[in-house]
Amino acid sequence: MTVPLTDHWIIQRFVRLAKADEGEDVYEPWPGYDKAMTQADAERALDECVRRWPDFEFRAHRVRVHEKIAADAIAKARRIIGDR
What we know:
The two termini are 21 Å apart. The protein has one domain. The protein has 2 helices and 3 strands; from the N terminus they run E-E-H-E-H. By secondary structure, it is of the alpha+beta class.
């Protein structure tokens, strides 16, 4: 898999506040909105999620190139280990 060298955006749902030893609150990708999109598309998708599921808290999350490269490397390593 080739990792595109551009940032993209996904929608995430708030799960819980960070614990004392964690740096950030916990969010998870929201199914159906977890595919790469532009910032403008993410803003529209965020508005849609807020309207459709008012009981949840959402955010548009920017996935930076270095995060995508790291995730790709981890996935490759897991596949290699799994093949043993």
